Amino acid sequence: MNKKFLWKIGGEAGFGIMTVGLNFSKIAAHSGYHIFDYTEYPSLIRGGHNTYEVLVSPDIVGASKKTIDLLVCLNKDTFELDKERLARDSMVIYDGDEFAPEGNYQLISLPLRAILKEEEAKEIMLNNIALGASLALMDWDLKYLEEIFIEAFSKKGNDIVEVNKKVARRGFDYIKKNYSELIVKDFPIRQAETKVVLTGNESFSLGSIAADCGLYCAYPMTPASSVQTVLANYAEKTGMVVRHSEDEIAVINTAIGSSWAGVRSAVGTSGGGFALMVEGISLAGMLETPLVIFLSQRPAPATGMPTWTEQGDLLFAVNAGHGDFPKIVLAPGDVQEMFELTVKAFDLADIYQTPVIVLSDKFLSESHQSLDLQKISDFSKNYKPNRGKIVAQVQGQTYQRYQVTDDGISPMLIPGAKGIFYQSNSYEHLENGYTTEAADERIKQADKRNRKLETYLKKDFQKPEIYGDFNKSEIVFISWGSNKGPILEAMKELENASLIHFTHVYPLDQGILIPFFPEGKRYILVENNQTGQFGRLLRGETGIEIKEKLLKYDGRSFWPEEIIKYVKPRRI
């Protein structure tokens, strides 16, 4: 069985749309299935329309699909906004006392507000009536939802737990009694491996903990904000300092100071906040101080569309900072890659004593994906931090902080060693840290710093991953970051297609990458921005030019169907 089922709920903000959506994802995972979910909400303090959709599949899935199988309408707006995504056999739950959908669908009139009134329940509990009805239609058990109620509400009292159970049961029983012929039989509860449901931001947070990050500093900015909340919840247990600074300038300078003192440090932000950090990034480049920067992208310029998605900051990240200095940019494609590359980012920052930027976007940052808990557990158990040339003490009394070396990396002493002179500041310097403006010394230090990139490309650059049978494929997608999921889902419906997926997006090397692009294939660049930024970067760094481009920049991620239609327009 490889059938996929898309459930979506929508309603007015404040009706617990995000909570009930996440609960549906958790219950699907408990029932033995893989999920991918995505939420949409306006950038308003109050009001507006919220939606949450969950794709359920027996196999690992990396993106949603366009056709909705079950649409739960807590208000009329949900139906009006999503009816174009419905098919004739789509099911629509609605309150018949509120409105009547027009169209040839499987209509399910559920007396949501009447049940509320009968149970003397609060209006926010509409969501749990609808969730109970949804579980009945999926032929799943209420026990997982009841366990969630106990975990979430037990501190508020047993009465709250019981009323939530009761309204969910009312929705569940109503479907069983009145719409049993519509119950889906393709997704029976089954035994499966233990899975965890995580967002990209949660995965970055767990990766930071696994990597022994000692300080995370941020000023909240969507869609990176939840990292701070997650890490703060673990701070007492992990010993990590999680600081909410007054602005992004304070954020990056706090982290640089912490890192300079020997603590693994990270910051998080989105494009506008990253802009304020740029001078600090240059400072880290001159100090040669390790730093991990989590940059979760959203549509820009300026405030743009704060709660939507785009990949428009790649070239900004690559070129951030005044002057020439090395930096490394990584771009995970899914939740599993986010965890592993976050851990690697902390190692790379220490090894090369330079800023490492981890690029995400709203699509990856806030979407939940199920993955095998054992994979994360095994990775964490086997991981040992690599701090490169960072040391607690040096032999003798002479210490050259910026010693010129063949690999460009100087021994880095954690300040405070007794009897050792240690100086570093924002000026160009001699090997011992003293300020200099001598031409020959400037060249020595600039060349030394730049050699780090040569060393990285030889030792730690990870070649792009190829998905599909590259030798037999006629069509080759080229992409990076979160486009991975939609492309892989599209490839399930396409013949003779493969993907070259980049996670290490800067620096790049012509000699390493030229063999990936033999002649005779149709190469298609897929990017979630207006100008094909990775294509421009690839051409500038390696001379490889991808002429055919599929670009999307409306604030939404790619549908797999859009990719299929682009390749074979007659199929859809």
TrEMBL record:
GO process annotations (BP): response to oxidative stress
The highest taxon in the source lineage is: Bacteria
Q: Which Pfam families match?
A: POR (PF01558), POR_N (PF01855)
> Which UniProt keywords are given for this protein, alphabetically ordered?
Oxidoreductase
- Domain (Pyruvate flavodoxin/ferredoxin oxidoreductase pyrimidine binding) spans 207-446
Residue span(s) of domain Pyruvate/ketoisovalerate oxidoreductase catalytic: 14-173
Cite the GO molecular-function annotations of the record: oxidoreductase activity, acting on the aldehyde or oxo group of donors
NCBIfam families named among the record's database cross-references: OAFO_sf
By what name is this protein known? 2-oxoacid:acceptor oxidoreductase subunit alpha
In its UniProt entry, the species of origin is given as Candidatus Shapirobacteria bacterium CG08_land_8_20_14_0_20_39_18
